[in-house]
Write a structure and sequence with these properties.
The chain is α/β, with parallel strands linked by helices. The protein is 29% helix and 16% strand. Helix 1 crosses helix 8 and helix 6 crosses helix 7.
Length: 314
């Protein structure tokens, strides 16, 4: 059964948000296909955002190459493409709002200082609160602030939410993450803050993405509540891993999407556990006509990760 919007709910607005650190690969395609099919199955909108908030990691020309690949694979998006590198003022405003609420503080801890922090069940080092009770200062407005990271104070009570595929989720942020960074000591804003601000600004109602980001969702919901933003619905799909068990990514040198789009689209569709067409589609347009009409989130595998198919990074 295709995704549906609840009666009285806002019209569906989804998004795909790749980072321009290299070309699109099969792992990226899985998330793009799932989010696009989920939106179009209910006549929803699908927006595109380039997550280049970490400008140091962005590669020249990568964003344009990503757009060209998406067009070649038949994706069409509404409105202009947003780029996080141009949205620093919006992130600064959100940080100031959180500061006015007493929810953030400056942190001078270095990576070396935190190297011995304990690892949580989700594989992250839990911030021990070393700077939590130091004298307060304001983001960017006091001496030395530019050399500090800014962290969000988290509660000891769990954050609960429901994922459309994985069901009820609960995360104790204090035990599993600790106070997390919103702005780094180099002045760049963290993904957790940027994605929350942008999802709210774009009116995103549904986030469909890889299951590797499921562990980040509680942080984002906590920020949404603190800033008074609506919470999108979430659907986390399996991610593809290579023969070593590593997630397909630019860091693990996953091969770029190349050649004819149809074989890769069909492989991504099969990876997502979807019903195969009776006959192979003759074109990209024919594939999307079938995919939009036959998208069934209930057919997704319960696993967080699955082996990539041969020839696509596996």
């Amino acid at each position: 059964m295709a995704a549906t919007t609840a009666a009285g709910a806002s019209p569906y607005r989804g998004r795909f948000a790749p980072s321009p650190t290299g070309p699109l690969h099969f792992g990226s395609l899985i998330a793009a296909v799932a989010s696009y099919a989920d939106a179009r199955a209910v006549q929803g909108e699908w927006l595109l955002r380039i997550e280049d908030v970490d400008v140091a990691r962005a590669r020249a020309g990568a964003a344009d190459a990503i757009l060209a690949t998406l067009e070649r694979f038949g994706f069409a998006w509404e409105g202009p493409v947003w780029r996080q590198s141009l949205r620093g003022d919006a992130y600064a405003e959100a940080l100031d709002r959180l500061d006015a609420l007493g929810l953030v503080y400056a942190c001078r801890c270095s990576r070396r200082d935190l190297a011995g922090a304990r690892l949580s069940a989700i594989g992250e080092r839990v911030y021990p609160g070393s700077c939590r009770d130091r004298a307060p200062s304001r983001p960017g407005k006091r001496a030395g602030a530019s050399r500090s990271a800014w962290r969000m104070r988290v509660p000891s009570t769990p954050v609960d939410f429901s994922d459309r595929h994985h069901g009820r989720q609960s995360q104790d942020l204090a035990a599993e993450v600790g106070d997390f960074v919103l702005r780094r000591s180099d002045g760049l804003y963290a993904y957790q803050l940027a994605v929350v601000v942008d999802d709210a600004a774009q009116g995103i109602t549904d986030v469909v993405r890889g299951a590797d980001l499921l562990a980040s969702t509680a942080r984002q919901i906590f920020l949404q509540r603190a800033l008074g933003y609506p919470m999108p619905r979430y659907l986390h799909v399996p991610i593809a891993v290579d023969v070593r068990g590593d997630k397909l990514s630019k860091q693990t040198r996953a091969p770029a999407l190349s050649g004819e789009p149809l074989p890769a689209l069909l492989a991504a569709w099969h990876f997502l556990g979807q019903r195969a067409p009776a006959d192979d589609p003759a074109s990209v347009a024919e594939f999307w006509t079938f995919a939009v009409s036959n998208w069934e989130p209930g057919r997704l595998a319960p696993a967080h990760e699955l082996p990539a198919p041969p020839g696509f990074g596996g």
